[in-house]
Amino acid sequence: MRLRRHFDMEESTGIDLAPMLDFVMNLLIFFIITAVFVKEVGFQVQRHGGGAGGPSTGKDTGSISVVVKASGDVIVDGRVVDVRAVRPNIVRLHAQQPEWGVMVTAEKMAEAGLLVQVMDQIRQGGVENISFGTSSR
Amino acid sequence: MHGKRHAGESEDHGIDLAPMLDFVMNLLIFFIITTSFVREPGVVVNKAEALKVGEQQQGNILIAIRPNGEVWMDRRQVDMREVRPLIERMHLERPEDTVIIIADKKAPSGTLALVMDEVKHGGVKEVAIGAASAAGK
To answer: Does the pLDDT of residue B71 top 90, yes or no?
Structure first.
């Protein structure tokens, strides 16, 4: 009787979990060391080739032209403007032609930092449809 | 004597591992679902700042462009012609991955455009330009 009770107790303890715990612990360590919590932030842009094809706004619509020059000048719709003035200009042009996208053309040696600033200004101006290309110079 | 031996046996079994296993299992599941296997470029770049940035959900392939035009991906410097085959291979392995191009502030825009083209030709249609969020500053 006593032996049987002892046997019952063994049964209720269940299987030995130690090897499983070892295995799970190994998996856990693996996933901890490979985990990366850095979320990259950014924005998506379309790409247009040299001159051919604008943003995907539609066949018969145009686009607002923004040029970023290697010298650091930003030209919006034919006028040289300051980087911080891109947003109001885009807001104005976007109000005039709400269905138009923006075509950003950068010179090859233009700094990417300025380009990102200009694109950020355009996005702040309410236009998400940005197409990016480079001029041949 | 018999009782003592019984106590010794239960000492052998040690503490109950089941609660610990539950806890470790929970940790494991947490790390499995948060892991994303980001392919880091392996180089630090001075990112351009932007106010309006969106978090890229599946941005797992990071490509860095240094100020001198070097392209880094997957922890090594790559040639411009290597980008497309590398992206093609990664796209086959994990088709849901998207690409974030992190260009340095001083990086030339022409290189950025070339890398973007190579990535698109490599089969990844969603390409984002990475930027540091300036909203919190």
So the answer is: yes
Across the interface, whether the CB atoms of B21 and A20 are under 8 A apart is answered: yes
**A-proximal residues of B, 14-33, CB under 8 Å:** 14, 17-18, 20-21, 24-25, 27-28, 31-32
CA distance A102 to chain B (A): 16
| Buried-state track A84-116, b at ≥16 Cβ within 10 A, e below 16 | eebbebbbebbeeeeebbbbbbbbbebbbbbbb
Q: Are residues B55 and B120 in the same domain?
A: yes
Residues of A in contact with B132 (CB under 8 A): 41
What is the value of ipTM here, to two decimals? 0.73
Q: What is the pTM of this model?
A: 0.73
> What's the pLDDT tens digit per position in B80-95?
999 999 999 989 988 8
Q: Which of B15, B7, B103, B95 is nearest to A110 (CA)?
A: B103
Q: Chain A residue with minimal CA distance to B59?
A: A40
The pLDDT tens digits for A105-120 are 999 889 999 999 999 9
**Residue from A124, A134, A119 nearest A76 by CA:** A119
Tell me which CATH code domain A46-134 carries.
3.30.420.270
Decide if pLDDT at B2 tops 70. Answer: no
Structural domains of chain B, count: 2
